């Protein structure tokens, strides 16, 4: 019989981080991943480690991660995750953009975040490579970026060294309950028993949660990114926009990693694997050029795509399940999961060891969508 104290479904950065922190506590942990470690959005995103632009319900998690976890993460995991804390410019080209950013800034400063609105001259002083079309921005000096592929790999490697068992290429089919409690997960090959079960499988979490009558309202959205050839060192900030249609940074290697939306996401939902379409990279590039024209002649060396599990209210579900003791859910991160993953890993560890998390997550409960009587 396959048994461990904790069973995690999903080998993305959230699953790997949680496995690491649980094993650090001395618990036996098994992780089951349908495909490969980091196959989804965990290793296919723009790498932002940002606090600005977040919903007030998840902002405290991001602030905790930036203050307490990211600065020492490379040392703790014994692998360079290429974390830079050099600020974040969220750019505006129109008065409507400025209004969006002002609202985001006001809500963030109310929670204690150091972020402010700046004009075009100060934007150019911080980053002289940006387009003259940029008329202002929000500026958060404590934001930054890291390498999502290396971060996911670092958590995975350190967790393995601490005894975590990772099983890939195996699909979880249903959760088994005994006397109302979640006690096991049946896969297409075996049955795995555990005292606590975490479902952290992105959009596919719903397939498994349905076996115990749960549902998280979320859509599957295509995330796309591209990498340029190496360029001379220009800047270290993270860039974004008011409408979140473009984001990116320059990597340690010198290449630029950019993400964006092509506008044809709705037509990709039938694909089993996320794929970059023939028109999507050029569409993203046209958007980038409006903000960053200096890269007009830079060659794109590769593109990739991944799925975002977009929640109905655009913040994640991080919660124990009252109706099914022993079951915890972490999904619907809406493309915001990477930057908060170290803190989420610690929060989930607290939830599964019956401790109070260091950040209040009551607003992220699984049952917040229930009809109110």
Name its key features.
FAD/NAD-bd_sf, alpha/beta, globular, FAD/NAD(P)-binding domain, 373 residues, four-stranded mixed β-sheet, D-Amino Acid Oxidase, Chain A, domain 2, single chain, 18 strands, 2 domains
Topology:
Layout lengths: L1 E8 L3 H12 L4 E5 L14 E2 L9 H11 L3 H5 L10 E5 L2 H15 L6 E4 H7 L9 E5 L3 E2 L2 H14 L3 E4 L3 E7 L2 E7 L3 E9 L5 H5 L8 E11 L9 E4 L4 E5 L5 E5 L19 H12 L8 E12 L5 E4 L6 E5 L5 H16 L21
Parallel strand pairs: 1-2, 1-11, 2-8, 4-13, 11-18
Antiparallel strand pairs: 3-7, 4-6, 5-6, 9-10, 10-11, 12-15, 12-16, 14-15, 17-18
Helix pairs in contact: 1-6, 1-9, 2-9
Protein name: FAD-binding oxidoreductase
Keywords: Oxidoreductase
Organism: Fusibacter paucivorans
What amount of the residues lies in strands? 25-35%
Quantity of strands, as a count: 18
First CA to last CA: what distance? 44 Å
Count of folded domains = 2
- The unreliable regions are none
Which structural class do the helices and strands define? alpha/beta
What would you say the CATH architecture of the largest domain is? 3-Layer(bba) Sandwich
CATH class of the largest domain: Alpha Beta
Strand-and-helix sequence, N→C? EHEEHHEHEHEEHEEEEHEEEEHEEEH
Form type: globular
CATH topology assignment of the largest domain: FAD/NAD(P)-binding domain
The CATH superfamily name of the largest domain is FAD/NAD(P)-binding domain
Largest sheet: 8 strands, mixed
Oligomer: single chain
**What is the C-alpha radius of gyration, as a whole number of Å?**
20 Å
Mean pLDDT across the residues is 92
Give helix % range.
25-40%
Question: Given the structure, what is the number of helices?
Answer: 9
């Amino acid at each position: 019989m396959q048994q461990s104290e904790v069973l995690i479904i999903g080998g993305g950065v959230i699953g790997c981080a949680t496995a690491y922190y649980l094993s650090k506590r001395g618990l036996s942990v098994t992780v089951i991943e349908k495909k490969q470690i980091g196959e989804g959005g965990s290793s296919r995103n723009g790498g932002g480690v940002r606090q600005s632009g977040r919903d007030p319900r998840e902002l405290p998690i991001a602030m905790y991660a930036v203050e307490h976890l990211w600065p020492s993460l490379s040392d703790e995991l014994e692998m360079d995750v290429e974390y830079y804390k050099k600020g974040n410019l969220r750019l505006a080209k129109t008065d409507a953009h400025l209004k969006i950013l002002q609202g985001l800034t006001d809500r963030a400063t109310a929670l204690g975040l150091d972020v402010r609105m700046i004009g075009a001259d100060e934007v150019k002083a911080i980053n002289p490579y940006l387009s003259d079309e940029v008329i202002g921005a929000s500026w958060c000096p404590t934001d930054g970026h890291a390498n999502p592929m290396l971060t996911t790999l670092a958590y995975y490697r350190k967790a393995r060294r601490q005894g975590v068992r990772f099983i890939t290429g195996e699909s979880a089919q249903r959760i088994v309950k005994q006397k109302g409690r979640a006690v096991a997960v049946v896969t297409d090959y075996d049955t795995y028993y555990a005292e606590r079960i975490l479902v952290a499988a992105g959009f596919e979490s719903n397939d498994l949660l349905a076996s115990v009558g749960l549902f998280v309202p979320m859509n599957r959205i295509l995330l796309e990114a591209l990498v340029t050839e190496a360029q001379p060192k220009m800047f270290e900030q993270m860039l974004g926009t008011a409408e979140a249609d473009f984001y990116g940074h320059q990597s340690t290697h010198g290449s630029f990693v950019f993400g964006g939306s092509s506008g044809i996401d709705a037509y990709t939902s039938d694909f089993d694997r996320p794929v970059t379409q023939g028109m999507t990279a050029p569409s993203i590039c046209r958007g980038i050029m409006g903000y960053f024209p200096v890269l007009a002649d830079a060659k794109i060396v590769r593109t990739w795509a991944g799925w975002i599990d977009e929640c109905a209210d655009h913040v994640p579900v991080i919660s124990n399940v009252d109706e099914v003791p022993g079951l915890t859910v972490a999904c619907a991160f809406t493309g915001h999961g990477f930057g908060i993953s170290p803190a989420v890993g610690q929060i989930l560890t607290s939830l599964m060891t019956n401790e109070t998390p260091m950040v209040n997550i009551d607003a992220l409960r699984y049952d917040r969508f229930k009809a109110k009587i």
